[in-house]
Design goal:
alpha+beta; elongated; Transcriptional regulator; 265 residues; single chain; Beta-Lactamase; MLTR_LBD; 2 domains; Cro/C1-type_HTH; 434 Repressor (Amino-terminal Domain); Lambda_DNA-bd_dom_sf; DNA binding
């Protein structure tokens, strides 16, 4: 964190401290009159669990780069929103923390978008664990019914290695590519959520039941697939080409997959 960044960081701390409303003292208790709005440095430092001397140096731009633990304590003390916390981390010279787990609820506006595109293109939404959360009518028509059985019945990686009818939908070459991407994406998910019991159980299940998954897992591949072109067999229109684009909602760790049709394959 350079000198200019330290100044900006300290200014941000001062603004946030000034915006906090002190608690009302008990009735009848005399308190000294505050000369400036917000909390005193000592009060903020006490809430954050750090020394007032160190906090003062942070505000004055005289301290070295704060640790992630200090930044997290300050974010809690200031009661910051996710966007405000992320800004604090960046000013402090650290990348913002990711979510501890994907959100289980899709934004209402995103659900309206899916419905609005029913007659235009297939759209699916899955989370950072690769669980399918929603799809519009066009996607349901293209991809067919989901098994939905067992704890992993809506997981894309699980379906890639256990689902039936993939060859009919994607063809032999497309199925081979899909399973390779699924294994790599599962490894990426586990690297982001290494202690997630659901992901670890899913991986163990696939290692125990799928030779194809074991072979791909041994390769150790990770994947950052965001754009692709796919040929897929529509149940009534035959083979079609799609441009696939992946959009990410980082706050909830949701992935929106848009299937833009570009004619027959």
């Amino acid at each position: 964190m350079g000198g200019r960044d330290r100044t900006e960081f300290g200014e941000y701390l001062r603004r946030r401290r000034a915006a906090l409303v002190p608690e009302e003292p008990p009735s009848g208790m005399r308190v000294s009159r505050r000369r400036v709005p917000g909390l005193r440095r000592q009060e903020l430092a006490d809430i954050a669990g750090i020394s007032v001397e160190y906090y003062t140096r942070l505000e004055q731009g005289r301290a070295s780069s704060p640790s992630r633990e200090i930044l997290a304590a300050l974010a809690r003390a200031f009661e910051l929103s996710t966007a405000e916390r992320d800004h604090l981390f960046r000013l402090g010279g650290e990348p913002p923390p990711g979510p501890e787990s994907p959100d289980a609820v899709i934004r209402p506006g995103l659900l309206r978008l899916l419905r609005g595109l029913d007659d235009t293109m297939p759209v699916t939404v899955h989370d950072g664990r690769l669980d399918l959360l929603a799809r519009n009518a066009a996607a349901a028509e293209l991809l067919g019914p989901l098994p939905g059985d067992g704890p992993f019945g809506r997981n894309i990686a699980y379906l890639a290695f256990t689902g039936t009818g993939l060859a009919d939908l994607l063809g032999e070459e497309g199925t081979e590519q899909f399973t390779r991407v699924a294994a790599a994406e599962l490894r990426t998910s586990l690297s982001r959520y290494p202690d997630d019991a659901y992901l670890r159980s899913l991986c163990a299940e696939l290692l125990a039941t799928s030779g194809r998954f074991r072979d791909l897992w041994e390769r150790g591949e990770v994947h950052a697939w965001r754009s692709a072109e796919k040929h897929m067999r529509h149940p009534t229109r035959g083979w079609l080409g799609f441009d696939i684009e992946m959009l990410h909602d980082p706050e909830r760790d949701h992935w929106i997959m848009l299937y833009t049709p570009h004619g027959r394959a």
